[in-house]
Design brief:
Length: 158
């Protein structure tokens, strides 16, 4: 008798070092905790420019959402699903004009990207398109944009 076994390998990501819990994710301020990816976030739907977006997050003792991997990207997409079909949100990531290297607010280099490459992104223009944006209408793909543009804000608290 021949027995054939098939094994399916499923890799689960467990964020055992996650220090966020209900006491550090202020639900009273409208923040939501996604434990699977250790993501405490809030979506502000009033459109702001980049500098105002950063200040809004800082006022909550947070920062713009830092999308560092595909799981965080999926969590962001889920957060934006219930928002207007035209939702466009600032996320962490800036570059110096003329550079193709992107950095988070703390100076760490961004290594995960979800560029809208079919749409010609990133453009890396030298005229100020130095900030990251997620466009729901483009399949949640990333775009480099100007800081004066008005978009919704996704903050996170770590």
């Amino acid at each position: 008798m021949l027995v054939i076994s098939h094994f399916i390998h499923i890799q689960l990501f467990v964020f055992s070092d996650c220090s966020i819990d209900e006491s550090s994710c202020p639900g009273s301020l409208g923040y939501i905790l996604n434990r699977e990816v250790c993501f405490c976030y809030k979506v502000y739907t009033t459109k702001q420019n980049y500098d105002s977006s950063v200040k809004i997050c800082e006022n909550d003792n947070g920062e713009l959402a830092r999308i560092s991997n595909a799981l965080r990207q999926q969590a962001l997409e889920n957060a934006l699903d219930g928002i207007s079909s035209y939702a466009e949100a600032y996320i962490q990531g800036t570059r110096t004009a003329g550079s193709t290297t992107w950095y988070y607010n703390d100076g760490t280099e961004v290594t995960y990207f979800n560029w809208n490459t079919p749409g010609g992104q990133p453009q890396h223009r030298d005229d100020g398109e130095d900030y990251l944006l997620v466009r729901k209408t483009k399949g949640y793909r990333w775009h480099d944009v100007y800081k004066a543009e008005q978009h919704i804000v996704v903050c996170e608290i770590e």
